[in-house]
Design a protein that fits this description.
Belongs to the histidinol dehydrogenase family. GO terms for molecular function: histidinol dehydrogenase activity; NAD binding; zinc ion binding. Its EC number is 1.1.1.23. This protein folds into 3 domains: about 1-25 and about 235-360, Nitrogenase molybdenum iron protein domain (Rossmann fold); about 30-230, Nitrogenase molybdenum iron protein domain (Rossmann fold, 3-Layer(aba) Sandwich), CATH 3.40.50.1980; about 395-425, no CATH class. Helices cover about 45% and strands about 15% of the residues. It has about 425 residues and is an alpha/beta fold. The protein is globular and about 80 Å long. The protein contains 17 helices and 14 strands. The longest helix has 19 residues, at about 80-100. The strands form 3 sheets. A 6-stranded parallel β-sheet has the order 1-11-10-9-12-13, with helices on both faces. It has a 5-stranded parallel β-sheet with strand order 6-5-4-7-8, sandwiched between helices. The protein has a 3-stranded antiparallel β-sheet with strand order 2-3-14, with no helix packed on it.
């Protein structure tokens, strides 16, 4: 794992490579994904079943749909401890997202004009839940609950089914959330199906959820025909720490992201050289004991970094440039950092707030911007599942009051009918 000193002459060029870590090469997969999308648009379910056979090892069967009976059976097979955990997560995530709800509002001006904003839930939301060999019920909870809270009328879930099997834990989570439409379809084909519709899968208005490079590329290509949440890349964590932090705890936190993916990024920034060097030793002490050793090792060594700064202010400035998905501040005065953090998907404050608690049931959403996109993207939330309409109503007095300025602007832009539409109402 590389160690960088901010005072070194070559630091800036090495640090810029970390800042620009999101340079995932979509160019290589773009032709493949474009072909998949066009095929699904043209041949619908037939194309989907061919892709399912190719990538998931089964023919799609008589129906791509996941039945309520499958969900119920999986729920009944789930042990009580897991049911309690899923329901606790559901309640906490729901309570948090309820606080994000916006209301329709109106304002009344003295001249009689009425202005406002109308909030309307999206009609149909498509949720992509990665799967295959692994089960990600937490991703379903994090994507479905904001849609439910927003009041979305129809939620459509797509998830890959290796050899036709969806993990029971994911099916149980579907049952708990009362998901009514779910399909055994994954990859770029699932994104195309939700974006344009097939005989089996309804066309949706927004698509959310994480996925691999093919899924991310597909979401980018269908954006505009439908809305999307964000283009998500490999997971990442950044930690600002000082001597008050526990070296063992922080080492495990960094490795918790490294074990996700060889391309996951793990960063520590500290102005304590002693802490930094102890941390590196601790990472390599723990690393061989991890089940996903090879993945974590490649991630830590190719995408990870320990950065030693000259002071607290520099640590904050550099972390803002990295704009990480998950940011832990492991200091005794963690809240004093908060006003100065500008770019982060989620901020974890204090020594007893590991990033993992946010992945599952703290309450805030774990679908977060990656690769530095926290500079302009926000976490998934209720806002992704609503639309806003402006409201304008004027009486004659209100229009008269604004007419001269409006006509002058229309005249300046050379739009005669615009000017006349005001003029005929005020003469």
């Amino acid at each position: 794992m590389k160690v960088l000193y901010s005072r070194d002459l070559g630091f800036r060029s090495e640090f810029d490579l970390l800042v620009n870590r999101s340079d995932n090469d979509m160019a290589d997969v773009m032709p493949i994904v474009t072909e998949i999308i066009n095929d699904v648009r043209n041949r619908g379910d037939v194309a989907l079943k061919e892709q399912i056979l190719k990538f998931d090892g089964w023919d799609g069967g008589d129906s791509l749909a996941i039945s309520k009976d499958e969900m119920k059976e999986a729920f009944n097979n789930t042990n009580n401890k897991m049911k309690e955990a899923l329901n606790l997560a559901k309640d906490r995530i729901k309570n948090y997202h309820k606080k994000q709800l916006e209301k329709t509002w109106l304002s009344f001006e003295e001249n009689g004009s009425i202005l406002g904003q109308k909030i309307t839930p999206i009609d149909k939301a498509g949720l992509y839940i990665p799967g295959g060999k692994a089960a990600y019920p937490s991703s379903l909870l994090m994507n479905a609950i904001p849609a439910i809270v927003a009041g979305v009328k129809q939620i459509i879930v797509c998830t890959p089914a290796t050899n036709g099997k969806v993990p029971e834990l994911l099916l149980a989570a579907m049952y708990i959330l009362d998901i009514k439409k779910a399909f055994k379809v994954g990859g770029a084909g699932a994104i195309a199906a939700m974006a344009y519709g097939t005989k089996s899968i309804p066309k949706v208005d927004v698509i959310t959820g994480p996925g691999n490079i093919f899924v991310a590329t597909a979401k980018k290509l269908v954006f505009g025909d439908v809305n999307i949440d964000m283009i998500a890349g490999p997971s990442e964590i950044g930690v600002i720490a000082d001597d008050s932090a526990n070296v063992h705890h922080i080492a495990i936190d960094l490795l918790s992201q490294a074990e996700h993916d060889e391309l996951a990024s793990s960063f520590l920034i500290t102005h304590s050289k002693d802490f930094a060097l102890k941390l590196k030793d601790e990472i390599y002490r723990i690393l061989p004991n991890l089940k996903r050793y090879e993945i974590a090792k490649k991630s830590i060594e190719n995408k990870g970094a320990i950065i030693i700064t000259q002071n607290k202010d520099e640590s904050i400035a550099l972390m803002n440039e990295l704009a990480v998905e998950h940011l832990e501040i492991a200091t005794n005065d963690a809240f004093s950092y908060l006003p100065f953090i500008k770019n982060a998907g989620a901020i974890f404050l204090g020594h007893y707030t590991p990033e993992a608690i946010g992945d599952y049931l703290a309450g805030p959403n774990h679908t977060l911007p990656t690769g530095g996109s926290a500079r302009f993207f926000s976490p998934l939330g209720v806002n992704n599942f609503i639309k806003k309409s402006s409201i304008i109503s004027m009486n004659k007095n209100g229009l008269n009051e604004l007419s001269k300025a409006c006509m002058a602007l229309a005249d300046a832009e050379g739009l005669e009918a615009h000017k006349l539409s005001v003029e005929v109402r005020t003469n």
